[in-house]
Description:
The protein has helices at 2-19, 85-88, 90-96, 122-138, 155-167, 184-192, 220-225, 232-240, 247-253, 260-263, 291-298, 326-340, and strands at residues 33-44, 47-58, 64-69, 100-104, 147-153, 172-176, 194-196, 212-215, 245-246, 270-274, 308-312. With 343 residues, the protein is an alpha/beta fold. Helix 4 (122-138) crosses helix 5 (155-167). The longest helix is centred in the N-terminal third of the chain and has 18 residues, at 2-19. It is globular, with a radius of gyration of 18 Å.
Amino acid sequence: xxxxxxxxxxATVLVLVALGFLLVPVSARAxxxxxxxxxxxxxxxxxxxxxHGTLCVPSGGAGTVQVLxxxxxxxxxxxxxxxxxxxxxxxxxxxxxxxxxxxLDRLGTGRSTTPPSAVLTTITExxxxxxxxxxxxxxxxxxxxxxxxxxxxxxGSGTASIEAATFHDVDAVxxxxxxxxxxxxGTTAVFAxxxxxxxxxxxxxxxxxxxxxxxxxxxxxxxxxxxxxxxDGAIAFDEATKDTSAYEQAADLFPxxxxxxxxxxxxxxxxxxxxxxxxxCGLLATDxxxxxxxxxxxxxxxxxxxxxxxxxxxxxxxxxxxAPNAPDYFRAVIDWANRKVGR
Length: 343
């Protein structure tokens, strides 16, 4: 399985070379941070698996690590976008602000192992992420961190919410690209743009069973980036690094109801960040017009007295790390993290 993952990675690099956007090794563009690849032995429903992550630590060290979970059909590259990283790399922004980052490949993506899709749910993924958090707190894989901010995007935010609510082992939770009210038109468009990963040449030989899905070629701008500007290099990077999800995971989020009982149990500071998201924003869905509107929409889904901060990123869709104005939201996250957790 790891050989197959390696083949996928090499194929991605070749595609990017052909497009003129070569992925520089992460350690070569760490910009003051030291990065290394880690492989965490984890157990998924009694099945031994390996979860891959890239740990980057600022040159001066850090006491807080941000554990980053990507969304459906994304892998860890979502947090360290190689096209104009000075604008779009969340990892780089956080490292420059003094935070360590651990960007994970969810099981079945990137360089993590590929289990049977039937056992991949939001709840089982949360249990696996919990094992990773225990490892970074104990120093079992190297540096030991006293404080952990758990951050997610989309499906990864659902996983982060369930992990934090179940295990209460993190200091704060960052939820991006996820809200509790759906835009049914937008979610229908996302499902219409997916198909079994086995039908995609990129994943045909990667050990995926029929329960894995990916996006159809050329569809990612319309479902993940619109109404943002169509920057060819950014969209090409997204298409070239796309990954998989399991149908079971998608079912967990649609309807979003499985997350709501858990988000009510989170007892740590939470920050919710949304763009003009076609999946979650709109009439009869979440009001994403301002930070106050998001807070009004989302407050009922969190426990009484929870420390909830919200941020609205204008002009972009679901995959907000790709937004030309992403640095604005990065700065907002840094300010929140500094106030609520510290480095």
